[in-house]
Amino acid sequence: MKKLAVFTLVMLLALPVCAFAADTAKTEGIQASPEFYAKADLSVLKGKKLGITIQSLQNAYWAGVMTALGEILQAAGAEYTIVGCNDSSATQISQIENFVSAGCDLIMVHPSDANAVEDACAEARNFGIKVMCWDDPMTNTDANWILNNTDLGIAIGELAGDFISRHYTAEKKAEVTVIGYPQTVILLERENGIKIGLKNKADGKYEIVATTAAIEANLAQDAVDTILQAHPDCRVITGIGAGAMIGADEALQIHTGGNIPEDMGVFTTDVTKQQLGQLADPTYPAKGIIGFEGSDEDTGRSAASMFALILEGKVGAKNVFRGVAPITAENVQKIMAGMK
Questions:
Q1: 276 and 173 in one domain?
Q2: Could you tell me the residue range of the domain that residue 217 belongs to?
Q3: Are residues 164 and 258 in the same domain?
Q4: Could you tell me if residue 66 is inside a domain?
Q5: Residues 265 and 276 in one domain
Q6: Which residues, including other chains, have CB under 8 Å from residue 73's CB and lie 6 or more apart?
Q7: HEC states along the chain?
Q8: Is the pLDDT of residue 38 over 70?
Q9: Chain mean pLDDT for the chain
Q10: Which residue among 62, 101, 158, 269 is least crowded, i.e. fewest CB within 10 A of its CB?
Q11: CATH assignment at residue 297
Q12: For the segment 270-301, what is each residue's pLDDT rounded down to a tens digit?
């Protein structure tokens, strides 16, 4: 059995969809559901050789999910290798070529640059190897496991909008900050989606007083600190990833001395232990996360199910859209139980 590569658990922004194409909303495919994954028979993975290459293993989200996936694959009797390419397309191409040489039955790629690895994936398929992409609607694959980032942003915005509607009115509007990252197309899609979701659920009850760009938690904290100097009554923060929540939580906790008012909330996506811990701790303002399959174990099992369905030719579509669901104080303990 090949072992999961050793990595350091660095609490960076979890970006599970960092290379997604700009035109996701127009991509045709099927929506995954519990019933869809239930069709998978993980016993078909026994004895199969699997090669998995992702952008980075030094990332809180990927660290947890890949640990869980490795445990599931080992229990199923698969032979697997999980490697990170450190966001280098050249390295990732070499890794794919090595998986081909090793005679893998299936290669899963979370691409640093989807266009850059298309030819390598095509070559793998020429050798009869199944190829799955995690995040991008690639061409030279058997299946793509993807998200609609605009819809993801809308879900974040609607979760925040519901909160605003419970605590604010047209006469007493919420002051809102949006933490985005427009330099990256998919994150701009999320940011725009957040604004749509806010309007859907809280039209007339809020004002966006600041929009800032930050990925890492420390930069998000610095940005929110600065915003609070100009807008000390800003109590609702929305953002495109884990770093936005972690940083905003720290800034607001300091700003309030840990006395979080009931009308203060932070809403983002991604699922990391630190986010969940803050969501469960009333001295932090985190109020909601739009998650994916659930915990690390849930996502790992869903990914393994995708492998089994691809190997048996039972996916049913080129593109499979992952579902999203809110994580709040009501279900956070259940999600935390499945984290790695």
A1: yes
A2: 149-291
A3: yes
A4: yes
A5: yes
A6: 45, 50, 80, 304
A7: CCCCCCCCCCCCCCCCCCCCCCCHHHCCCEECCHHHHHCCCHHHHCCCEEEEEECCCCCHHHHHHHHHHHHHHHHHCCEEEEEECCCCHHHHHHHHHHHHHCCCCEEEECCCCHHHHHHHHHHHHHCCCEEEEECCCCCCCCEEEECCHHHHHHHHHHHHHHHHHHHCCCCCCEEEEEEECCCCHHHHHHHHHHHHHHHHHHCCCEEEEEEEECCCHHHHHHHHHHHHHHCCCCCEEEECCHHHHHHHHHHHHHHHCCCCCCCCEEEEECCCHHHHHHHHCCCCCEEEEEECCCCHHHHHHHHHHHHHHHHCCCCCCCEEECCCEEECCCCHHHHHCCCC
A8: yes
A9: 91
A10: 101
A11: 3.40.50.2300
A12: 999 999 999 999 999 999 999 999 999 999 99
19: in domain: no
Asked if residue 131 and residue 141 are part of one domain, the reply reads yes
Per-residue pLDDT tens over the stretch 42-86: 999 999 999 999 998 887 788 889 999 999 999 999 999 999 999
Residues 6+ apart with CB under 8 A from 197: 153, 154, 155, 156, 157, 158, 159, 160, 161
Burial of 257 (0-12, 13-18, 19+ CB in 10 A): exposed
* 160 and 286 both lie in a single domain: yes
Say yes or no: 163 and 179 in one domain.
yes
Q: How far apart are CA 249 and CA 257, in angstroms?
A: 12
| Residue 179 in tokens | 């933490």
Does residue 334 sit within a domain?
A: no
Residue with tokens 């090595």, as numbered in its chain: 98
241 part of a folded domain: yes
Task: Report the DSSP beta bridge partners of residue 211.
Answer: 178
